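Re: the request from the purification team.
They wanted to know what the chain is likely to look like in 3D before they choose a buffer screen. I agreed to run a prediction and write the result into the notebook, where they can find it.
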Amino acid sequence: MELKWLEDFVCLVKAGSFSRASGERNVTQPAFSRRIRALEDWLGVTLIDRSSYPVTLTPFGEEFLPSAREILRTSYGARDDFRLLTKGQPDTIKIVTLHTLSLHVLPELIVRLLRAQQNAKADIISSLQGVDQHFDAVTNGIADLLVTYSDDAIESQFLGVGVLDEKVIGEDKLLPVASARFADQYGLTNIRETDQPVPFLAYSSFSFSEKLVTPVVNQISDRLQVVIESGLSESLKAFMMQDFGVAWLPGATIEKELETGEVVCVGDAALFVDLKINAYRNKDQRSDLSDAMWKIL
């Protein structure tokens, strides 16, 4: 469950319509509706009576509204308290990133920073879930930097406010891959050409990678059957290596396995997802340490 969903729910109650609320939340109406539905799915009940205008709450919604407001109040109160506690620590840089990048990209960059700034400390935050949370962290000053995968759609959604600097620091691809054993078992060389549904290791809904992969996966959704979902590419890689199915994984995470032949690509170039590895920082919340890191990036 994401705090954004609770904020959406409270905003919808106040606005009285999906169109007005989505505008206030700066997202498209379909995306806003999906987030409200995700909250309902997580709770297991229907919160909104969509047959009326303005929208009204179901009895479950009426009961949940005070809880939603209290959760938001408590959560952001705790965040504000910790922000105060962490102020005045110019020797620490906080970097929000994806789990995959914390393993395969950031270590080398952090080492270069620590060697150049001997008294510096780095706090790597890879536990936040959801693209909204990542950008909120750097926009609201919780983190100094965000290092993440990105594409044009994500940038158009989050960079319009003009408060973030952006720098491209690398490139990668999400590749449709399977273990060689699995590919042999299914006679699989290209997913497009299979005549039976193939077990699919999918990214969890609303995860960062799911947003990136979905446009490609939708091209061949009739040839894929979801058997496992996870928000972590490393988790999907583990199941892929155990011959459980096909997964879209960053090239950096499977480079060695592709070279040895343990893993094979099972799609053409049209099924690859081109990625930029980007860094973002808040233009108005910079420090000497974050400037030093920005130069290294």
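For the purification team: The chain is about 45% helix and 25% strand.
Please add any questions underneath this entry.
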